[in-house]
Amino acid sequence: MFINGEWIIPTDENSFWSYDPATGKRIAKVVDGGAQDAEKAIASATEAFPIWSQTTAYRRAEILKDAQGTVMERAGEMANLMSREQGKPLKAALNEVRYAADFLGWFSEEAKRNYGCTIPSARADQRFMTVKAAVGVVAAITPWNYPVSMITRKIAPALAAGCTVVLKPAEATPLCAIAMFEAMSDAGVPKGVINLVTAQDPAPIGEVFVNDPRVSKITFTGSTRVGRYLASAAGQTMKRISLELGGHAPFIVFPDADPVHAAKGAGLVKFLNTGQACISPNRMFVHESIYQPFIETLSERTQKLKAGSGLEQGVSIGPLVNEAAVEKVEAQVKDAISQGAAVVCGGHRLTEEAFTNGSFFAPTVLSNVTPEMEIYREETFGPVAAVIPFSDKDDIFAMANDTHYGLAAYVYTKSLSRSYEAMEKLRFGIIGINDINPTSAAAPFGGLNDSGLGREGGIEGLEEYLETKTVGLSLV
Ligand code: ADP
Description:
The chain contains 14 helices and 20 strands. The model has no long low-confidence stretch (mean pLDDT 97). Strand 8 (164-168), helix 6 (174-186) and strand 9 (194-196) form a beta-alpha-beta unit. The longest helix is centred in the N-terminal third of the chain and has 21 residues, at 90-110. The strands form 5 sheets. Strands 14-15-16-13-12-17-18 form a 7-stranded mixed β-sheet, with helices on both faces. It has 476 residues and is an alpha/beta fold. The chain has helices spanning 35-54, 57-73, 75-86, 90-110, 149-161, 174-186, 202-211, 224-234, 259-271, 291-303, 323-338, 396-401, 416-425, 458-463, and strands at residues 2-3, 6-7, 15-19, 26-31, 117-119, 126-134, 137-141, 164-168, 194-196, 215-221, 240-244, 249-253, 281-287, 342-345, 364-367, 384-390, 408-412, 430-433, 452-453, 466-474. Helix 2 runs antiparallel to helix 4 and helix 9 crosses helix 10.
């Protein structure tokens, strides 16, 4: 843990292990923090806030820029650690470290563009203006699937705005969080401005975060279930809230699209991070006229994907985070098969010798998925592509919108009119049109409905950490 600029080292009495999900082997011990540690960390962030929030935006920007440099210098070792602790292939881990560094870079620049405005008044002797103020102490909770970029996506804008932070990372990936905090602290983030509380049991920490009056804002990325709890509990003390929750992305392939190109894109985005992403496509709607070539290309490419430890050469399917994740994926696949879905490839756990101690599921393509199946409604978070044919008679946008989530949606079409229609009719926060990577530190990321509240990244990402004060001034 890192509180008030000091590292707290794990002891035998007060620690838990971080594991490699590909082998089930222990990697290192981490401090098992509790409610009292969360309180100490909040005290430290509270003490640091007046000085940090009054530090010039230019100085804050410099420190963030230096942190970006330090993270990039350590990209290789951070990616290696991430592959071991989280399981993603090394190349994907390197991409994530770059993405994490991008947030530090982007918000170091935005720190200097924290503009207010002047507003005309109806009274001749009056002037209006707005000034922006840092929200205060921020409590952040991050997930394991993107274990470093989700940290900087919260900390970089918070620090740019002048806030101080207490962060609790996911219990599955505390080492990645420690590496990121080391980089930021070594780059010169002052004592108390960022604090890290690692814990095996998140509940007591969460409880302190939502109840402590010194915390002004909660920012959370994770499941809708936990997000709902945090938001409602934090309502008692009226904290600001940002939530980036689950998704159930539709991926629509219109008849004018090239089915081979679309299937290649579908395979790339579906199996990224072994399907453990909130923007992973969960329902692939493919027009019946191009259904066959789409399925053929997708399954051909899926069968070529090699599973294994992220550190092995040529691996693109890493382990799932744990056994419970494998069970969930397996249950969804079994349910779909029992209701008539066809397994085009995969469809089972990987149990051969190399996989026995890890949590692996074969990359899978399911055809003829229907609305009655669990996979059509529930987030899979695993390597299963669920494909659904549609015809001209279907209202495809209504079908795509038929979910309580609203994070990402993907569309393949060559028609400009269709693209506009998709943009306007799809009720999702992020829409990729012939684009499987509609994300960037410079672009807002977030969802509608059960996918959450607020946006991260982009100009909007800074606003989440700012209050607007209106000043009315009477001339005398
Ligand atoms: P997942 O099921 O994908 O692991 P979670 O929402 O359980 O998603 O986890 C995301 C983050 O939320 C993790 O850091 C986890 O420790 C944290 N978390 C889970 N339960 C709570 C809770 N009751 N209070 C605070 N944080 C929690």
